[in-house]
Write the structure tokens for this entry.
Amino acid sequence: MKRLFTLLIVLGLAFSVSAVWAQDTLVYGTTDKVTDMDTASAYDFHTWEIFQNVSSGLLAYTPGTTTLVPALATGYTVNAAGDEYTFTLRKGVKFSNGDAFNASVVKWNIDRVAKLNGDPAALVTQYVKEVDVVDDYTVKFVLNGPVSYLPALVATPTYFPMDPAVYPVDKIVKDVGELTGGEIAALGPYRLTSFKRDEEAVFDANPNYWGKEPGIKKIVIRYFADATTMRLALEKGEVDLTFKSMNPSDIADLSKSGKYNVVKVPGPQIRYICFETSESVFKDKRLRQAASMLINRPEINQKVYLGQNAPLYSMIPIGMSYHTDDFKALGDGNVAAAEKILKSLGYSASKPFSFDLWYTPSHYGDTEVNMAEVVKAEMEKSPLVKVNIKSAEWATYKQNWNNKQMPAFFLGWYPDYIDPDDYTSPFAQTEGSKGMGIYFTSKAWDDLFVQEQQTTKDAVRNSTFGKIQKMWTDEVPTVPIYQGNLYVFSRKNVTGVKIGPTLIFNYDQLKFTK
Amino acid sequence: MRHLASYILTRLLLAIPMIFILLTIIFVVLRVMPGDPVSAMLGDRAPLRVINEKKHALGLDKPITAQYVDYLGQLARGDLGNSMIFQQTVSSAIGDKLPATIELTLFGLLASLGIGIPLGAAAARRRRSGRDFGIRLYANVVYCIPVFWMGLLLQLLFGVVLGWFPISGRTSPRVTSSAFSWSGFYTIDTLRIGNVAAFGDVMWHLVLPALTLGIVLSGIFVRLTRANMLDVLKTDYILAARARGIPERRVVFNHGLRNALIPIVTMLGLQFSLLLAGAILTESTFSWPGMGRLLLERIYLRDYPTIQGVIVVYTLLVSVMSLVVDLLYAAIDPRVKY
Amino acid sequence: MGVPAARFSPAGGLANALGWFTRTRRKYGMEWWIMIAGMIVILFVVTMTVFPGLFTRFDPNDQNAGGQMKPPSSEHLMGTDNLSRDVWARVVYGARTILGVAIAAALVSALIGIPLGLLSGFAGGTFDRILSLIMDSVYSFPGLILAIAFAAMLGPGVINITLAVAVVYIPTYFRLVRGQTLSIKEEVYVEAARAIGARRPTILSRYVFPNVIATVVVIFSLNIADAIMTEAALSYIGLGLPAGIPDWGMDLSMGKKFLPSGMWWMITFPGLMIMLLALGFTMLGEGLAEVLNPRLLEK
């Protein structure tokens, strides 16, 4: 027994030493999950990240910035009306399996996304009427109306061209094994050579990439079930880098320790509470105002996130154009003002305003329950309010908001495209609002949204968004809580982590230093 | 031989009612669950018509009894069906993860036996001594420690502070399992191709998870061994052995322990269930890609066929294990005949 | 008929109980002390349940009880957690949650399993065979998995979790009671009762049931210990009680996140309490078993 044990330890130590030798591989730990390996359906952060590394768009962001530069397209022109964009494609680009990339591939993909109508399809169908193949290397996007931010849209994975020979045109692919050839034909710096759901994903440099070769030839993503284990794995050296999502206490420790490179990514990812505005107890906008007055953002930030995030006073994130802190007017933990409203509506300590507040326990990480508890305590600082916390897993959660079963619920948002429109219209423009379970509708608002979507004039957009944000504090379809920072921890010899406001993580920028 | 074969067959056939019963319970439970898998699958923007089409395609709009009968028919043909959420058969989803769980559970069983039996024997030898009391206390305390807490403590102590063992996964990230993966039982697979380094890596990753399970469940074996040993040590043949002048050590271990083990073997089947349950928690703590995680994930996604399939497989596992145990029992105890 | 009056007076009853205590203590030594130790722990926790105010002045949900994540001090015996709540207060108030769920689950299991066991053992025949088959199947299946499936189906909620946990233990009572019923059924005095024309319910309640009680009590105690562990496991997976109710299991999983940061008190104290309470019931059960029927648990 003892001998076996010693043998195990010796083997283990020998192995750990040998593991350090292979330094052309980066191990990246995450607690995120992959949803569907299909751009027509994936609408989550991590799966998009994978596509951003194995594929390319017509335009792309310079890593770490919000500047769009040519990628698969070498340039584009816009017609006078602003509703037709013609892209000139790069010549000689091939998929990793050798298939050619050209204009018909672009058209095939847009048509497919629209037809399959998955989660992100609105990013296409809301704006694009049709795509015309002008010639092999010229493609024209005909839009429903002028859209000032189409270039930003085109840089989202939903618009990425996938290989028609590999992806089925009529159904959504969940797993890599379903693809013809068993692999995503890559247009980007890496190929996904192996994928075991919830275990690991292995990326190798794509030999057919049209751009510059990546600094690290092989990247292995290890999927963790548990953030605590991931932290320990980083400390042990089992992983070289972690991104999404560490516990706040781990973030604090790892940052302080000085043993790791810490990249704080102040991205436009926001958290907020949505109200069902058509039939629930929150029909009356004054109650929505009262509820938002009771929220104390700095307290939430300190208690739940140990001060690692930023309180947010507008649905448009800090740092994005046209952001104004209008919600500051409603105050943080403003019990007096809230009670004034509640009393005027007939509520009292013996007849309190009671409602269900919902959260989802794992989709946004496991700090959700703490946030719900803190908000409940903040609201109940006034004896005129009574909050019942309820929870549902993501599948049920989505169903609930479609069925108007949640009067108030927590939600989060990562940018689809970098534009203030992406943070406002999905919640308050009539069509989008329905889809988000808010059911807010107002002609005045819709008109404003159309106005800002169609113009490219900065001054006009500035004043329109100014109006929208102000009106938000009056109608309160949602109340913003905080804007999150994301943290990347890596060992000292890993550099090149360049994540900008787009929150795009380009693996090809990573390098080992010696 | 003929008797043995028919015995095995009968036992396996008896597993069927068990599967049937558990399946029925789970089947009903699942259909009553809130949360619509189809709209979760298709996304919340899918129009009602598309959702209904999908429901029809999956047979979810039929009455429960009809769905039940369909599924039973499918099972009878040995077909576990297709995952409702992913484009894979349930068998392949399970087949991927099953070996990991079995490997973990078996090594956990070995660990708990390896810890429990010697301790139980030691306690029995010195009945009512401080040692006995201490060991019995250990046995009781250890079972009351939540498995995941034990896992975390082991991770911290042996994984991080001492740095002796890895704390997650079945292999080191730089070891590509596809290089040797054949049956899914990495211990066998690595030996099969003679890759000793990989074998070492796999075993090294098994230590902490197996110990987690093993320590928590060792308490049962301590008690069992002790109780059985006490009985055996009182018997006449032990007395006779002592009278013949055989050294105490041989008396206890050769004569005493061997006979005490027989009842333990019969308990192995039941303890296997406990191990399977504990494995779910262990898998979560150590990010072990096994059936426990599969089950939890699919419950979350409302993937009925896979959940049902997992239950069927667990039931089969338990049945097979108890059959193996019975055969072992027959092998050890010469009084049992078929 | 001819029953001594003393048996029906409280004083007499107390005298009997005390006498039993001292007799068993002398007879069983170590086991007796184990049983007593278990009882003390349980009594301690029960007092916490009934009179929480005696133990702490803090409200378990008060998020301003003290600083955030402060280690144990004279003000906060077990420190404060990440939402600045007093950990000791959460332990004290959490006692009623976990005890409530565990005892309720055990009661539900017993109330379903025992009558079924009695009936099945007594009636025999096909009914017995089918019921036994069902119960055996559920019994040999890993209990936690069943609890997970039920908890996932029913959703969060105190009653739902209680039911999910209860389902797992029904077969335990069933098998035990059925076994006892089967053996008692063959006893002479039961035959005699039948000979003088006693009806089935009478036989069940007057002759079979009282003999079964002793075993049931032991199993009940062990059942509660197990239910406590199952509830903690469900909380860990995220299928536990809803937020807002102080719960050791929930605090245990929450506290787990802070252990690597050195904030050991958030997980250690709820963990120790779970262990202690489960241990208490285990020791009570085992002690009782040794005292009432020494060979009962050696299976």
